[in-house]
Each structure stands twice: as C-alpha cells, then as structure tokens.
Amino acid sequence: MADDEDEELRRQTEDKPKKKKKKKPKTDDSGAAEGGGDGEAPRKKKKKKKKPALDEEGGAAAADDDVDDGDKKPAAKKKKKKKKPVDQSDGQIEAHSDQVQQEQDNYYGGAAVAAVAAASTAGAYQQDSNGDDMGAERKKKEDEYNASYYDGNDGDVEMAMKNNGGGYDEAYCFEADTEIMAEIQQDNTVQVDESGGIQAFVAETIEIDGDDVGIIKSDAEIEAEEKRKYVKYFGAAVCCLVVVVVAVAVPLTLKFTKNVVNKTRYVSDPPTEPPSQMPSIMPSGQPTSTKFMEIVDFLMPLSGNSLKVQGSPQYKAAMWMESGDMMPNSRGGTGLSIDDAGFTQRYIMALFYYAMDGDNWVQKQGWLSEKSECEWFGIDGFSAGCGSDGIGGCIKRSDFEGDYNKVCRLSMGRLNNLFGEFPKEMGQLEEMRYVEIQDDWLIGTIPTELGRGWRKLHTFLIGGNVMHGGIPSSFANNEFLGTVFIDRNNFNGTWPNVFDTLKNLEWLDAEGNDFTGTLSPGIGELKSLRIFNINNNSISGNLPDTFDESNLMEDFEVAYNKFSSTLPESLGKAKFLKDLRASGNQISGGIPVSYYNLKNLEELYLDNNRMVGELPQTYEPFYDGLQELSVHSNMGMKGRFPVENFEKTLRVKVIELHNTEMTGQISENICGRLDPNLSYTRLKTITADCEKIKCSCCTCYKDGKIESTYP
Q1: What are the Acidic residues biased-composition ranges (predicted)?
Q2: Is 705 helix (H, G, I), strand (E, B) or coil?
Q3: Which residues, 6 or more positions from 279, have their beta carbon under 8 angstroms from its beta carbon?
C-alpha cells in the first residue's frame, strides 16, 4: 500500500510545472547588494535561528557575524514558509517525506521523530552550502562531529552538547529503527548522507477522518470510569429499595392506625345510624344512636365531657349501658333506660369495671353479665350492716315504688390485679359501708367525692397499692368510719389531722408512707382507738401525751420516724397497752415509772434512740407478761441487767442488750430456753456485749459489730 502511494506522489510531482529558482542577491564586503537596480534598497537576508555550531574541540560555536543584534525582531506568529523551487527529485523527496513523517509519527513514535530531526539538520546544512560558502565547511565539521559520537552497532544516534565548563550539560539519545531506515533508503526517495543520516525534507500534511478513531485511555481513567458506573448503579439500587420500603410501609401504617382511638374526637351530633342488633360487651366505633345521646345527656352532670371521649372508662360504660347490657327489664326487653331506677348505680359499677381494667382481673365472676350488680363478684356477700339473703351485697330498698336495692359492699380481696384510679362517680353510692382493694395497683389520689358520699362507710382498706397525695378533708367527722388501712402506699404531705375527728376510729394503719409534719394531741383523745401504726414515715416533733385510763390503746407503734421527745408519761395510763414500738427515733430520757404498772405489756422496743437510765431492778408488773425486750444501741442505758426478773416469766422470746453500758450475767436457766425443742416458751434471740455481760449463749457484740454467735 505504501508503494502505491509513493508512485502516486511521484506522478503528481512530475506533472507540476518547474519553477525557476530565484538567485539570492550577492553582497559585497560592505554588505550592499549587488545588482540592486532602479535604486531599490537591497533587502536583508532573513536568516533562520540556528543552534550554536560546535567547534572541533566540542565547544559552542560563535554567533554568525552577519547577524546584527539590531536586526532581531520580537517573536511573531509562526508563518508558513514558501517552499523553494526544487527539481523533480526534490519534489519527490518532499512528497514522500510527508507520508513517511505521518506513518512514522503514527506507528513508531519517538524513533522516527529522532531520524527525521537528524535528516532535517543535514538538509539545513546542505541548503546553506548552496547559498553560503561557509555552509560546506560547517557541514563537514558537523559530519565529523556526528561521526565521532555515532555508534552504528545498535542503531543509536547520540547528540551531546558540552557546556563551557567542559562537562555534558544535556544529552539526548534517539533510537532509530534499523528496518525503517533500510526501507527508506531502498525507496530512493530520501537522501542519506555518508554517516547514515537522513537528509532534511518537508512532509506534506495528510488529513485523517477522526470519526472512527478511538481514544486510548490510561488505566487510571478506565478505573475512574468504572467507579463512576458503580456509584451510579448503587444509587439506582438504593432509590429502588427506598421506593419498595415506602410502598410497603405506607399501607401497613394506614391499616394499623385505623383502629387507634382519637381521644379528642367527640360524639357526632345529630346521630345518623340506629343501634346494632347484636350488641357486644366491648363496643367499638363512634356511637350515633339516639339512645346513646340520651344516655350521654342524662349522665353529663355526673361524668361531664369524659362521656364524649372515646376510650375513656365513662365512654365505655355508657356504650355498654346503651347496647351491651343484657339484663331483662320490665318492658320485656334487655337493658335499663334512663327512666329506670338503678340505672345510675349500674352505670357506676360498669364504670368501675372499665376504670380498673376489669378484663384482666383474676376474679370477675358475674361482672357485666345479665345478673343484677348486687350479685357480681366482690359486691355479693355479707359485711357488717350490709347484705342479706337473696340480694347479696346490697341494701334492700324496695319498700316503695321506684326504689331499688343499693350497693353497700365492694370487697375485691387481695392480689386481684386491679389497675387504675378510683372513679369519682363512686361517691354516688351513698349506702357504701365496706370497701377492700388491697395489694393491687390502685393509682392516683382518693377523690374528694368519696368522702362526701360515703358517710356510712365503716371499713376502708386500700393498703398495699401505689396511691399518693393525702386523705381528703371530706372524710372528717365520719361517725361510722372505724377501720382505715392506707399502709404501704405513697401517700405524702403533712400528717392528715382529719383522723383526729374520727371519734369511732379503732384501727389506723398508715405504715410505710411518706407523711411528714407532727402528730396532734388529738390522737390521744380518740378513746376508741386500739391500734395506731405509723411506722416508717417521716413524722417529727413530740409524741402526743394526752392519754388516760379510758383509752383502749393496745398497739402504739411510731418506730422509724423522727420524733425527738421523751416517752409520753400518760401512755402508762393506757392499761390495755400490749405493744409499744418507738425504735429508730431520737427519743431521750428513761423509761417512765408509770410504765412499770403496764401488766399487759408484751412487746417493748426502744432500741436505736438516745435513752438513758436503767431497767427497773425490783420485780414489777411490768415483767409479768413481757415477751420481747429490745433496748440495744442506747449508749446511755446502764446499770445491772435484772436477770432474776426474766427467769420468772416463761414466755420471753427476745432479749437485745448489745451496744449499751449495761452489766451483769445471763443465767443458764435463761440460756436453756434456746432449746429448739421448745415451742411456746422458746427463747429465740439474746444479744449482749459479752465483755460487759457474761453470757455463754448470747450473740456477742464488740464495738457495735457481731463478734460471735451461738451456737
């Protein structure tokens, strides 16, 4: 293919008309041009900038004297030079050199470029020899220089330029392909000098269609393009995943939120649908019946807007009364209407069921059934002044037309899993006598309405729950309330003086709360009070000292509070006192002498106080029934321990004397009562500082710590 192209180029060159060469004007020694006729100023020869010629020693050649510094012009835009007229062989050389130059640039890179550069240099010197006498001499010197640095064994052309110091400043090595050089020489289209260099020629520009030419990319560019593709694909995958998740999540969310109760949505007005034919115990949906609207209007003075809030206990109870109650009525149907006696009471008991999470009770027999509420679990049965055969836990009130049997008892027992707040509507049950809900999950506070409505209540047992607040003053002056258990709750605030007004109060258990403040003297004036227990609170001040012989006090328990007074002297007049517990306070002083006559005293706990003095040394009625004595951790207690007084009683079970200044000895008779084979008369615990009180069977303490135990 290359041969065909060469032949075509030769033909084109031969067809071109030959042009005469223009002779260069000769200059004389003064530089004036010869033959410059017509007075035309001779034009100076434009010389190309040449590389500095090397002399025979390899140094840089001196600049041409013919080139004047003043003739130098600033660099201008490079212009195409007119080709000099050449003969036929020169035209062939130029045409062929263009093709060779293009092929070598495309296929052989730097080697071909190096060869062409060498040929260009040789051609330049040949051109100078045609127009300048010094050209031949410079060419000869250059040829000799190149020959001295040319190594033909490997086809390498070395060009080196030495600096003024004699060393090589730069060295450029070009490798010319031997086969290419041979091929060029065989074509007889390129002149080769004696040293093997290619004569200078000008290559013709060849236009190439770049539509089908591909770009060769580097490895880094290919890797970057692959990364961009991966990022693009990963982003598309993430977008698809998000779309799928949203497409699945939105329908599920809409499905499960349809049944969520909107607690701010109210009953529509007016109603649009009749009640369902098959009512259920747990109504659902927004009620729209006329009957329901009548029930809501009727109960509004009692329950207020809670009736209109879906999901509230009042709303559920009203719905049950509207469509869930299956109790037969006097009209041959089921359920009570607002005109029936007992409608409000049945609504209140249904409300209690929903307010206390009745679906999860352990025992709930009969609740929300077709039976009368008087027969539901916890309401039925008998209590003092409440209930009778045939009507369960209700007061019979059917003596006149329009009356009904009224609930007077609510005993849900212990651990029945009630959870919720007391509905204030319960205060409408004015015949309530007995309420017991212990060890469950009552929360909130005691509604004031209960104190106002339950004026006949005599037993109120709500111990072991999580209620807080105080005791409403509405319970004050209740003439029937005799037993109150509010122990083990979270009641707080100052001690409620409402108890001082309960003249028939017999048993008050408020242990394990967070009451603060002080006790009023009115506690000692409650003549019927038998058991008073406020252990484990934060009550401070003085103990009441207003007791007398008419007091029926049996248990007076004020342990682990913050009392700082002495033991009340008047308490010794309470002849029925059996149990006195005042441990863990800051009580000072000694045991009052009046206590020596408490012949019914069985338990005396005065430990962990600041008491002083000694135990009575003479035999007193005080020792007759004493079973448990604890005076430890009172460093002011001293004197001899009257062991002989304890040997006379067969019922002693606890003797705790450690961390005191008491002395003496425990007899073997008392130690013998530790025998595990004994039952009623067995001594369970005896402690002492064994360095002060000699004892062979005691748990011995030293410096407030146990040193040894028995056995």
Answers
A1: 55-69
A2: strand
A3: 322, 323, 324, 326
